[in-house]
């Protein structure tokens, strides 16, 4: 099945390259070979954490003219929120490296591809 | 990080010039200079600590730096401050300045103590280490600014800081303030002790700088959503 789909792809590519029938659709300046690595990308763009705590603390500062002693409660809650966010981030990154919802993480794919690179010479 | 190369570990032989490298095989463990952990009896150890001890019997351990001691006077915050003050590797000079600072702090506080009326004597803090730590805590900023690019422009976004970063900023501000903005003829320990006492009572230029950072963060609070972490 893989070989059949491979040859079909090769035929399509050679048709796109050929000058016999129509204008060639591809004019590659480098040989059409895949790289031995995958781009590192993160699908979910994160969002700002602890914004509510920060805004409460800043409101308190505005009221009390930036004296820290009067805003200690808000500051404590902000620190706690920051700690929780850091722990959550660490846990999430750990979970990322373990499993990616059916796919491998880019780092793992790269290690695998490095072990089995595209053959440069004929064996 | 390179994977641990256990097969290539050479047996340790003493060298001619004893040097502690900063790049070790990740197989090496960190040294533990605190005495209390070694005096604990077997029963009080948790499973993790027992595992650590068994590991230490097998694995090699990194050499400590020259400035770590197991004495009661070893303070990591003070060591970090000394390292930040140090120039051209002159640790002796930097440490001497710090001891002179602590001495002058003690002298000033004891003078105040003896001059104070009976009711106020209990409030005056004479321990220079306590004054140092409290002053540094008063100087630590709560929130910092990060330069984030969005739509071609750079915005100063308020961002929470880690504890290490806050401590570093407090120490850096203290040292630069004492180096630049003071009279040229006064010695560094004198300038430091004045600034530390001012920070202890929440006055002075370093506290002002911290408040200015807070004010900037507060004025830019609309951009807080540009953060993605």
TrEMBL record, chain A:
<dbReference type="GO" id="GO:0005654">
    <property type="term" value="C:nucleoplasm"/>
</dbReference>
<dbReference type="InterPro" id="IPR033620">
    <property type="entry name" value="Ribosomal_mS37_met"/>
</dbReference>
<feature type="domain" description="CHCH">
    <location>
        <begin position="50"/>
        <end position="84"/>
    </location>
</feature>
<feature type="region of interest" description="Disordered">
    <location>
        <begin position="1"/>
        <end position="29"/>
    </location>
</feature>
<dbReference type="InterPro" id="IPR009069">
    <property type="entry name" value="Cys_alpha_HP_mot_SF"/>
</dbReference>
<keyword id="KW-1015">Disulfide bond</keyword>
<protein>
    <submittedName>
        <fullName>Coiled-coil-helix-coiled-coil-helix domain-containing protein 1</fullName>
    </submittedName>
</protein>
<dbReference type="GO" id="GO:0003723">
    <property type="term" value="F:RNA binding"/>
</dbReference>
<dbReference type="InterPro" id="IPR010625">
    <property type="entry name" value="CHCH"/>
</dbReference>
<dbReference type="GO" id="GO:0005761">
    <property type="term" value="C:mitochondrial ribosome"/>
</dbReference>
<dbReference type="Pfam" id="PF06747">
    <property type="entry name" value="CHCH"/>
</dbReference>
<dbReference type="GO" id="GO:0032543">
    <property type="term" value="P:mitochondrial translation"/>
</dbReference>
UniProtKB/TrEMBL annotation, chain B:
<dbReference type="InterPro" id="IPR036823">
    <property type="entry name" value="Ribosomal_uS7_dom_sf"/>
</dbReference>
<keyword id="KW-0809">Transit peptide</keyword>
<dbReference type="GO" id="GO:0005763">
    <property type="term" value="C:mitochondrial small ribosomal subunit"/>
</dbReference>
<feature type="domain" description="Small ribosomal subunit protein uS7">
    <location>
        <begin position="65"/>
        <end position="221"/>
    </location>
</feature>
<keyword id="KW-0496">Mitochondrion</keyword>
<dbReference type="GO" id="GO:0006412">
    <property type="term" value="P:translation"/>
</dbReference>
<protein>
    <recommendedName>
        <fullName>Small ribosomal subunit protein uS7m</fullName>
    </recommendedName>
</protein>
<dbReference type="Pfam" id="PF00177">
    <property type="entry name" value="Ribosomal_S7"/>
</dbReference>
<dbReference type="GO" id="GO:0005743">
    <property type="term" value="C:mitochondrial inner membrane"/>
</dbReference>
<keyword id="KW-0689">Ribosomal protein</keyword>
<comment type="similarity">
    <text>Belongs to the universal ribosomal protein uS7 family.</text>
</comment>
<dbReference type="InterPro" id="IPR000235">
    <property type="entry name" value="Ribosomal_uS7"/>
</dbReference>
<keyword id="KW-0687">Ribonucleoprotein</keyword>
<dbReference type="InterPro" id="IPR023798">
    <property type="entry name" value="Ribosomal_uS7_dom"/>
</dbReference>
């Amino acid at each position: 099945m893989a070989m059949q789909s491979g040859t079909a792809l090769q035929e399509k590519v050679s048709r796109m390259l050929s000058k016999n029938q129509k204008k060639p659709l591809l004019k590659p300046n480098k040989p059409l070979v895949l790289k031995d690595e995958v781009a590192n990308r993160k699908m979910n763009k994160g969002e700002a954490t602890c914004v509510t705590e920060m805004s409460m603390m800043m409101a308190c500062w505005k009221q009390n003219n930036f004296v820290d002693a009067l805003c200690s409660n808000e500051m404590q809650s902000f620190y706690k929120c920051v700690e929780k966010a850091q722990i959550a981030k660490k846990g999430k990154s750990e979970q990322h490296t373990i499993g990616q919802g059916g796919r491998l993480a880019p780092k793992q794919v790269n290690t695998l591809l490095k072990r089995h690179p595209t053959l440069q010479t004929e064996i | 990080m390179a994977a641990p190369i256990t097969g290539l570990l050479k047996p340790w032989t003493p060298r001619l010039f004893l040097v502690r490298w900063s790049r070790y095989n990740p197989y090496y463990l960190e040294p533990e200079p605190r005495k209390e952990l070694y005096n604990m009896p077997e029963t009080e150890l948790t499973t993790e600590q027992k595992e650590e001890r068994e590991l230490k019997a097998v694995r090699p351990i990194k050499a400590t730096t020259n400035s770590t001691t197991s004495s009661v006077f070893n303070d990591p915050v003070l060591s970090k401050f000394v390292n930040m003050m140090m120039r051209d590797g002159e640790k002796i000079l930097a440490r001497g300045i710090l001891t002179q600072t602590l001495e002058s702090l003690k002298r000033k506080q004891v003078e105040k103590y003896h001059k104070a009326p009976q009711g106020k004597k209990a409030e005056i803090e004479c321990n220079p280490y306590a004054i140092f730590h409290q002053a540094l805590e008063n100087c630590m900023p709560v929130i910092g600014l990060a330069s984030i690019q969005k739509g071609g422009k750079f915005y100063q976004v308020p961002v929470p800081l880690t504890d290490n970063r806050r401590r570093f900023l407090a120490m850096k501000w203290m040292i630069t303030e004492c180096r630049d903005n003071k009279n040229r003829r006064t010695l560094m320990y004198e300038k430091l002790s004045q600034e530390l006492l001012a920070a202890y009572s929440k006055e002075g230029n370093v506290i002002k700088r911290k408040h200015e950072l807070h004010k900037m963060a507060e004025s830019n609070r609309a951009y807080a959503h540009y953060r993605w972490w």
